[in-house]
């Protein structure tokens, strides 16, 4: 078990077949933190509205996070665009998980990091949301292919590999979009008098300096299988969890607390 000062995860997309819940459960089994930041798109309300899909492993992820909160970790949930319905609950808590619009995390060495999902600063989401829905449908189709592709890789003893991520990073326009997004987020962090930003949204894990600001993206649990962590010595780094490191995670089957069940239902309506 490894203990960190903080762990950031986002873009889990519970409620979709592309969600790699088994890998995330294994990650949560082997890692603890004083603070867990759920940086948006944890539940995919867009997909759940079309077709309700909620296997036991997705339920187990929720239970695992609730248990960490009950055991004393601070768990903060910052909704994104796919779970935007949860934004009406800013300032409330669900099973000891706090819902916030954004937060400032202070690192061990005193740096202030603005934590937000990032969709509110995405031009496509703000001015052409219909295009985002079309892109999401195409993306889901690629993930469907990717799921079976990786089932074959696992049987061959190979690590998880994302076909969708590979294709995205080969397309010039997609690469340009990512670069623009990163610079916008760094600029917004500066406007908030912060030393850097932690976000998700674009499914590309990254730590780098942009114009003197620290840009951190924790990636996702559909393509990258990644998390951002701050170690007990204050180091920020990306962890990739592309292999299951232990036995299958056993989470007792218990009924979700009414308020958590209500939140999941609200996001999917």
From TrEMBL:
Would the keyword Membrane be found if you checked this record's keyword annotation? yes
> Mind telling me which InterPro entries this protein's record contains?
Calcineurin-like_PHP, LpxH-like, Metallo-depent_PP-like
One GO biological process term is: lipid A biosynthetic process
Q: Where's the Calcineurin-like phosphoesterase domain? A: 6-204
Q: Which GO terms describe its molecular function?
A: metal ion binding; UDP-2,3-diacylglucosamine hydrolase activity
> Could you name the Gene Ontology cellular component terms for this entry?
membrane
Which UniProt keyword terms apply here? Answer: Cell inner membrane, Cell membrane, Manganese, Membrane, Metal-binding
| PANTHER family to which the protein is assigned, alphabetical | BLL8164 PROTEIN (PTHR34990:SF2), UDP-2,3-DIACYLGLUCOSAMINE HYDROLASE-RELATED (PTHR34990)
Identification of the protein by name: Calcineurin-like phosphoesterase domain-containing protein
Source organism of the structure? Polynucleobacter duraquae
């Amino acid at each position: 078990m490894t203990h960190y000062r903080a762990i950031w995860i986002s873009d889990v997309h519970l409620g979709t077949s592309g969600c790699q819940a088994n890998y995330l459960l294994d990650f949560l089994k082997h890692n603890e933190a004083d603070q867990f930041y759920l940086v948006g798109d944890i539940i995919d309300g867009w997909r759940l509205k079309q077709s309700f899909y909620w296997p036991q492993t997705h339920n187990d992820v929720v239970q695992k996070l609730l248990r960490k909160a009950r055991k004393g970790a601070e768990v903060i949930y910052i909704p994104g665009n796919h779970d935007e319905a949860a934004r009406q609950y800013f300032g409330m808590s669900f099973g000891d998980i706090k819902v916030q619009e954004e937060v400032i995390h202070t690192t061990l060495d005193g740096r202030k990091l603005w934590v937000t999902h990032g969709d509110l600063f995405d031009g496509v989401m703000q001015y052409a949301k219909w295009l985002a829905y079309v892109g999401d449908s195409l993306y889901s189709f690629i993930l469907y292919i990717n799921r079976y592709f990786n089932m074959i890789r696992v049987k061959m003893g190979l690590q998880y590999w994302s076909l969708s991520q590979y294709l995205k990073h080969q397309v010039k326009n997609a690469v340009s979009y990512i670069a623009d997004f990163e610079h916008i987020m760094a600029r917004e962090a500066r406007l908030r008098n912060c030393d850097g930003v932690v976000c998700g949204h674009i499914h590309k894990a990254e730590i780098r300096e942009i114009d003197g600001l620290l840009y951190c993206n924790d990636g996702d649990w559909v393509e990258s299988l990644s998390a951002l962590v701050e170690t007990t010595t204050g180091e920020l780094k990306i962890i990739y969890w592309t292999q299951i490191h232990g036995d299958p995670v056993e989470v007792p089957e218990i009924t979700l607390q009414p308020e958590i069940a209500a939140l999941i239902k609200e996001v999917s309506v």
